[in-house]
Amino acid sequence: MHKIILFLFVSSCLHMHSAQASQVSGERTLIVYLSRTNNTKTIAEIIHQEVGGDLVALELENPYPEKYKTIVKLVAEENESGFLPALKTKVDMDKYDIIFLGFPTWGMQLPPPMKSFLAENDLSGKTVIPFNTHGGYGLGNSFKKVKELCPESTVLKGFSIKGGSERDGIFLAIKGKRRKDAKLQVKSWLNELKISTPK
Ligand SMILES: Cc1cc2nc3c(=O)[nH]c(=O)nc-3n(C[C@H](O)[C@H](O)[C@H](O)COP(=O)(O)O)c2cc1C
């Protein structure tokens, strides 16, 4: 009996140790993002420079249409019906403890492919950190939805920043000076979360 208790104690300490170590080393960290016009991708790359780990773009089995008006209509229908588009991207979640989830605001919601990702992958017991870019109207209910879809995860404070506005012909907006400013903001957010830079 004592041996069992000792084993449980030691294994839980080892687990705590590995979770803490990953917060500083960047190993066992996944940064997965959805991006159409590269604003969210830019933020994902900045986070990757700061924390290391694996950087993965979310790809669909059937890519969305190029035309802005067509994708807006389709996403509105998918949001309405709860349709989850099939993903080409597959991830071995056992490899990770910390998951950064990046996405644009689509129809003031979490985009359907990110809903697919959270439906397909079990993030229980992991640390989840959302980040977002938007066209000027903010993140909508997207962070709230992440929390709802990850009930057994520790969801940390997210980061949201204005990106492009495809509707107005502005595609990648987080570049040049705006990229530098974004990098400072990302660094300060990561400091607040106590996620430190790999050496
Ligand atoms: C289908 C679609 C829906 C969008 N809906 C919104 C929205 O509801 N609110 C908003 O502020 N921006 C909206 N946008 C603009 C994007 O959130 C913004 O351009 C974002 O920075 C794009 O990120 P990306 O470059 O990583 O694709 C929408 C864009 C698309 C393509």
Task: Walk me through the structure.
The chain has one domain: Rossmann fold (3-Layer(aba) Sandwich), CATH 3.40.50. The chain is 43% helix and 15% strand. About 10% of the residues have low confidence. The longest helix is centred in the first third of the chain and has 24 residues. It has 6 helices and 6 strands. With 199 residues, the protein is α/β, with parallel strands linked by helices. Strands 1, 2, 3, 4, 5 and 6 form a 6-stranded parallel beta sheet that branches. Bound molecules: flavin mononucleotide (FMN). The site of flavin mononucleotide has 24 residues, from helix 2, helix 3 and strand 4.
Short description:
The protein has 6 helices and 6 strands. It is an alpha/beta fold and 199 residues long. Strands 1, 2, 3, 4, 5 and 6 form a 6-stranded parallel beta sheet that branches.
Number of strands: 6
User: Could you tell me the radius of gyration in angstroms?
Assistant: 18 Å
Q: Structurally, how many domains make up the residues?
A: 1
Overall form: globular
Main β-sheet: number of strands, strand sense, barrel status?
6 strands, parallel
Please identify, by name, the CATH architecture: 3-Layer(aba) Sandwich
Give the CATH topology. Answer: Rossmann fold
Q: Assign the structural class, choosing from mainly alpha, mainly beta, alpha/beta, alpha+beta, or little secondary structure.
A: alpha/beta
How much strand?
A: 15-25%
CATH first level: Alpha Beta
